[in-house]
Amino acid sequence: MSVKQSEAIARRFEQVFNTGNTEDVAEYIAPGFVQHGPGTPSVPPGPEGYKEIVRAYRSAFPDINVTIDEIIATEHSAAIRYHARGTFLGELVGISPTGKSFEVMGTDTVHIADGKITEAWQLYDTLAFNEQLGLLQLLPQAEVAR
Q1: Is 31 within a domain?
Q2: CATH of the domain at 61
Q3: Which of 9, 17, 131, 132 is least enclosed, having the fewest CB within 10 Å?
C-alpha cells in the first residue's frame, strides 16, 4: 500500500463518526479488528464490533463531530490527531446522559494490512471529557495543617 492509501483509509476510519454510516466498514476494517482505548465498549472483533462502537457513540452523542487535524501515515500505519465535540444525550456504557457538551483532542494510531485496519490504539483527554460532561465529582478540600 502507498502512504496516500493509508491516509485515505485513516480518514474513513474517523469520518464514519460524523455520518454514522457504517454500511461500508468491511471495506476498510479487517475481520479481526480490535480497538484499544479508554471508554471503548466491549465488542466482538471485526467490522461488526466496530459498527457497535460507532453506534454506541452516535447514540450517546448524536451531534458528535470529529475533525482531523493531522495524519502522519506510512505504508502500514497512520497516526491521526483530531478533536471531537458533541453533547451527551444518550446512555453510554451504562452512564446516563447529562445533557452537557464536550470538546477534546485525541490521537488514534491504526495498523493497516492488506488495505484494512487491523488494530487501533486511541488516546484522548479523558479527564477533560469526563469533567466537561459532569461525570467527575469534586472531592472536598482537605484542611491544610498550619
Answers
A1: yes
A2: 3.10.450.50
A3: 131
Report the domain count for the chain. Answer: 1
- Written in H, E and C, the secondary structure of 55-84 is HHHHHHCCCCEEEEEEEEECCCEEEEEEEE
Nearest to 34 by CA among 114, 130, 115, 109: 109
Structural domain for 51, as ranges: 3-132
**Is 67 a domain residue?**
yes
User: pLDDT > 90: what percent of the chain?
Assistant: 77
- The model's pLDDT over 110-139, given as tens digits with 9 standing for 90+, comes to 999 999 999 999 999 999 999 999 888 643
Q: Kindly state the helix (H) or strand (E) to which residue 30 belongs, with its residue range.
A: strand 29-36
User: Which residues share a beta bridge with 83?
Assistant: 67, 105
User: Cα(30)–Cα(98) distance, rounded to whole angstroms?
Assistant: 34
Q: Would 143 be classed as within a structural domain?
A: no
Q: Which residues contact 69 (CB under 8 A, 6 or more apart)?
A: 81, 82, 83, 105
Q: Are 55 and 93 in contact (CB under 8 A)?
A: no
